[in-house]
Amino acid sequence: MEQQDRIMDGDLQTLGLQSILKMLALSGKTGKLFVSSGPETLSISLRKGQIVGLHEDGVPQPDILGMLCLINKLDPPRAQMVRELSQGDMQMALAMLVERGWMSAAEMQRRLEFAVTQSISHALRWVNGRFAFHRQLLPMESKLQPLDVDSMLLEALRQADEWEEIAREGVTHLTRTTVARWQPEVSDDVRRLGLNQESIEVLCLANGELTLQAVSLVLMMPEARVAALLARLLELHLIEVVDTALETELQQDLSNIIIKCQYTLAQQRQTSQPDQHLLGLITTLAECINNLLIHHGSYARHLRGRGHIPSMEIVRYLERRFLPHLQMLAKQQFPILETATFHYGQLDCNDILTLHKLVKGEQLEEFYWEAVQGLVAFLRMIFTELLRDEVGNSHTGRQLTVAWKIFLSEIDHEVQQYQVYRAHRNAQMARGHDQSASPSIGIVQNWNGSSEPPNGDFWSHERRRSM
């Protein structure tokens, strides 16, 4: 920017934003005002003393189209079409909605005015910072109709006063970047909670993705009012504030566990003998279960925010939470799991892994097969409980669920391949085929008894290459 184009600059402690805007409005200035405080920067475009545009640097534009869908003001297919065309530009997206008759021009203007007022209200509370006005900079293009500075300031100051009021009431832990989500145990039927309409609207938008600022923007409700409603929902234990740093760390740890388990599963595919293949699956499943237990010992909701926790307390928590599931599976479906125990918060399958010392042949294979089925069921239970407790029905939870389903599909594929092998072997036995030499798990004998794989081989091309 040319130095000579800057006609005014200074410190916010010397001249506040309110006074700066009034001076520019009274003198009918055209140009761009930059205001910064710490990492935040606001640029306000003026034409003849009226506000015609505003941009907050470093603040991602909220997905206004997605939020309009959440409050039933827009259909998802229409939102997706406009999203692709507008490429993340909120003003362009609103203009396209107006062009297609899906929003009135008056509503678009109200939304744009509200966004400007909300941003300036936030900046009015800055105590430290700098400002500079450049007269030759052309105002940014905007769909916003010019705003009278005095009228806008009146509303912005009112909103700023509301923040001061709720701060006096003790709501100091919520900011415009706060993200909230439903508690996992909350029922989906909010009509039974006795909440007013505003509270229900805010609760429905507490999805673990939207900031307080974004909720305010879509509802056109002052940020301080949204904060007060969130505080009330927190008191009712209907929502929780998302710790974004913890959530990122948690997500990375679980992602690493899934990748590690996928690698272990791929490694055990090198064997083709049925009993060894099943033993490899048991080892993989037990390792994955124990990795999830270690993870949950660090990130369980019950254990958060308590500083250092003795290891035995974590062990007791894990066993209290998951041992009943294991015992239920052993009692109702998979008796072999009675030999599995918890030892210092970890699943101990040693008795299953050493069964070959006591049992041989088909009986050993049957025990291994039952153990695989039981451990798969237990693994699913653990992950479902773990995810529900740690992140609930959130964006992070949905992302992790997708990755987890991919891993489970690989486990299911291994199980299904073995089931095909068993079915084929049992069919051969029923037809009186010589079973003196059991086929390998990778090459299933065909119906005429030759050793060539039938059409086909019930295992993948990758498995055949590994034989």
What does this structure look like?
The protein has helices spanning 17-26, 64-70, 76-86, 90-99, 105-123, 149-168, 197-205, 212-219, 223-235, 244-268, 274-299, 311-332, 350-353, 361-390, 395-430, 461-466; strands spanning 6-11, 31-37, 40-47, 50-57, 130-134, 179-182, 207-211, 239-241, 341-343, 346-348. The protein is an alpha+beta fold and 467 residues long. The protein has three domains: 3-62 and 86-152, no CATH class; 179-241; 244-466, no CATH class. The strands form three sheets. It has a five-stranded antiparallel β-sheet with strand order 1-5-2-3-4, with helices on one face. It is elongated and about 100 Å long. The model is unreliable at 443-467 (pLDDT under 50).
Helix content: 40-55%
Parts with pLDDT < 50 across at least 5 consecutive residues: 443-467
Strand content: 5-15%
Q: Largest beta sheet: what is the strand line-up? A: 1-5-2-3-4
CA-to-CA gap between the ends?
68 Å
Largest sheet, in brief, is:
5 strands, antiparallel
